[in-house]
User: What shape does this take?
Amino acid sequence: MFAGLNNNPVSFPQAMPPDWPGNAWWHWVIFTVIILVFFLGSVIMFIYMERRVLAKMQARIGPNRVGPFGLLQAIADAVKVLMKEMVTPANADKIVYWLAPAITFAPVVMVLAVVPFADGALLADLNIGILYVLAISSLSSIGVFMAGWSSNNKYSLIGAMRMVAAVVSYEMPIVLALASVVLIAGSMSLNDIVIAQQSYPMLLMQPLAFLLMFIAGCAEINRSPFDLMEADSEIVAGFHTEYTGMKFALFYLAEYGEAVVMSSVIATVFLGGWQGPFLWPWLWFILKTFFVFFLMIWTRTTLPRVRIDQLMSLAWKFLFPLALINLIFTGIEVLTYPDGIPWYFIFANIAIGAILVLLWSRLYKVGGGRIAVG
Amino acid sequence: MTLRTEPFVLNMGPVHPSTHGVFRMRVTLDGEVVVNLEPVFGYLHRGIEKLAEERTYTGIVPLTDRLDYVASMTNNLAYCLAVEKLAGIKVPERAEYLRVIMSELQRIAAHLISIGSFFNDCGAYFTPFLYMFRERERIVDLLEMVSGQRLLYNYMRPGGVSQDIPEEFLPALKEALNQMPKYIDEYERLLKDNEILYARARGVGILPKEMAISIGASGPVLRGCGVKWDIRKVDPYSIYDRFEFDIPTGTQGDCYDRYRVRVEEMKQSLRIIEQAIKQIPAGSIRSDVPQLIRPPVGEAYAHLEAPTGELGFYLVSDGSIAPYRCHIRAPSLMNLTALRDMIVGWKVQDLILIFGSFAITMGEVDR
Assistant: This one.
């Protein structure tokens, strides 16, 4: 079952694609540049896309003045933000306040190291890729909490507390949903998972896991309807209320960076990553990433925000048990067919997923919410 | 081990995205739970009641625009009703119909804003809000056609209205009336049965019926509790006794009911306008009223059903060209008295939602 797993835990030279010519060092250099370009380029495109699609869905026009179709709007905003005065609140914890944006931003880029753009085209083909993604992506919540704590602002603190609570809860369903994919693919390396989706994307074999991953992913990166940590109508801007200028821009960048990372991981794990006919692999990968992000924009325009206790109960009482049951079913299937699950199990899995969601939503109740204050 | 925790005080407002103006709530929070709340208002006080004592009776009309600035037609009408009662002025038939059409259009426009901002407070990122504004824009265009203004219409006068409707108004109104039900259905499909809205708004911020009556609540806040109380029915003013319409009521008195009542009221307003268009006669639009009205010594109170509730004007005349005293019964302020009891025990997010479901306008609360 675990034949695909390499016994050597993290050895970088071996993690290199075998047919890559030349030495290790220029592989690192090239892929660092590619990742940075991809990251910044997609963040800019995501911001543009979000604003335009949001506008279209809300019966308005959106940015259309800077450059053709307003394409350069994000760059204009970046220049404006760079030239802004940096204001530090008088009672802020200065060191933590300055460190927080960097600590939030850095892990976001790091995750992309294990995401393949084409067959073998990735910075490091770690055999524990999924684990790496999960570990690194939750690091940025530390930066968010530092920001909320050090700003010495009550809105920031509330936002940061909500953030930590949400991230801790939503790690669980994400881990379990990805675990069932790992069971089928037989490997934790993202490249191997993509190769395992040669004939059909994992979305078909694991529809429930995709649903759980998408919902939990939205919560993990603070997308609506789970954007409680920066709920503008309640706690102004949440943890980055006190941030201005470039420090704010780093948070903004990190926020969209998280969206890029989450979309690309979902696209890789569930939609077949770079697999696809006719077009270049990297183009398929980018198209799928943007498609996942489009789904996120769609949910954002449509749904109101949930309450903090409902957010927690959704994670622990709905997503978590479903992810566990899904994992058990997947385990049984994998044990029964060790040489690969037959394709007709797609229908079985879709049926199981639908029945589970319907049954569990009958059991799942959202509590009243009022607390007696004496 | 138990952690030592203590409640902390958070000043929400006067400048805050969800306070509908410049309202301030001094909230004591225990974690996310509200344990105490102290509303602070007066940031938008302009002394309208005192200013009114220095103006002529006709000159007060533009002041009333600035009360509930999203529903200035009904403000105008309430004031004009009070002056007409005080001075015994008769209003021509056509003017009455115009008044009804304008105030019902205004009610739809104001409810659209209330519902839109309620969903904004609920966290639906501006989508319902902007959809509602798209339709409000059509109504504002219509009202601009008759009054020349887009927000503060200053349209009604004691004894009638300031000007007759232009020729193109009625066709445009009919077209808008044909399209409105389609748009309302669109909102219903998008919002009515949303599961997150159920979880957020049902059973949240319940205002008991007895309490609502005892604080003098009115409008959708009172009707949401299931009390069938609408000034248009219980004390018909103008010509409302000629129209057929229902009073939608809620059952529980929670945020969801208040939202539903507003939606249903928009449909009823459409019904009233349709009937009014069919019946509207030709004729003069303003009775012969002198420039400076000198009502006999005395007092008068007139009230009507504004979008937020019972809006009343109490005028005392000493026989001069300006009122001796002008008191405004502002429905938003009366409804707000229940705020503390409804919010304590709920979370910060519910606070915003419950407060948003009142749909107050600060211009009216502070006057």
